[in-house]
Amino acid sequence: MRAVDPDIRVITDGMSEGDFTLQLVALEPGVDLLADHRYMPWKTDGTLIRGEGERAEMVPVEALTAEEHFLALVSTPGFDEAGRSWWAYRQGHDRHDKPMAFTEWNWNGWGRSVRGHPQVRPGWAQAIGAAGFIHAIMRRGDRAVIACQSMMLGNNWEITAVRVGEGHEPFIKPTGRVTGFYSRHHGSAMLAVDDHDVPRYEQPYTMGGILPAARVARIDTLATADEELMYVHMIHRSFDKPSLVRLDLAGVVPDEVEQAELRLLLGRTDINVSEPAYAAALIELDLRVDLDRGVAEFELPAQALAVLIAPVDPQRLTHVEALGVEN
Q1: Whose CA is closest to 265, among 235, 301, 300, 306?
Q2: Which residues have CB under 8 Å from 171's CB, separation 6+?
Q3: Minimal CA–CA distance to 64: which of 143, 131, 118, 7?
Q4: Do 69 and 61 contact (CB within 8 A), yes or no?
Q5: Which of 54, 236, 252, 263 has the fewest C-beta atoms under 10 angstroms from its C-beta?
Q6: Sign of the Cα pseudo-torsion (37, 43, 49, 53, in order)
């Protein structure tokens, strides 16, 4: 390949430390980037595991509440100690000291544990899980050279972003709507966020490759910016309760700015929004939120993906002072 194009960049991907070790022994120095092959939760069999170690027990999916099932579905790809979405890529990436290509990822799961709950259709939960992947990748931006959702266009695989099949017009599936939402509304620089006041909860279930977590932020928040605007990205994992959000952007947004834009992407779990007949149930709203000397207060609907967009003062672009959430 390099004989044809000497500037080509070569990515190798794997699902275990052994994969990368063998490939790099054979191909080094020809490999430029490593791709951590990560999809969740893969095949499921109708049960989940509650707890860990000796206290672990098998639980049929039908025994979970709708909220418990939803919270398990959206718990991707993992969480750091503070409960924020995090990509815990394999240790070999650090040892081999190669940059990352986040090209082999998506919410991808099948079987009765995913589809068997009587009250939750998983399409929108999968989309929120995909947003968790995106937040995790953005937090690994120091290692990322390229990042894209796999399976963008197709007519068969569940994880296609745009479905082109017989009997219906092409349509965008929920995970594709999420990727498009983030691609339209984001900055190129990451800002620090203080989210210590955001409530955390425990997610005790293992569902295939989805693992339990002692702490999960109810609203997973990160902020990005460009030279003109800042974007506060929020994943609201509450199943059925809205939250009153208070964002203190003082010191980043000029004091004279009186309004910010709030974009919401909303779905439903009582119908299968992955099917073409229900795809229109995913809606995007463009609202306005008042700012009082950089402070915004607004209600965030349950199961919402949101981004608050406001002008920035480039001279003061350092961090978002605080994020507070109340029920």
Answers
A1: 306
A2: 162, 163, 276, 279
A3: 118
A4: yes
A5: 54
A6: negative
CB atoms within 10 A of CB 21: 14
- SS3 letters across 164-192: CCCCCCCEECHHHHHHHHHHHCCCCEEEE
For residue 68, the number of C-alpha atoms closer than 13 Å in the C-beta half-sphere is: 18
Helix, strand, coil share of the chain (percent; to 5): 20, 40, 40
Token couple for 289: 């939120």
Phi, psi torsion values for 310, nearest 5 degrees: -145, 150
For the record, the structure tokens of 18 come out as: 């052994």
**Range 138-174 burial, b when 16+ CB lie within 10 A, else e:** bbbeebbeebebbbeeeeeebbbbebeeeeeeebbbb
List the structure tokens of 74: 């959206």
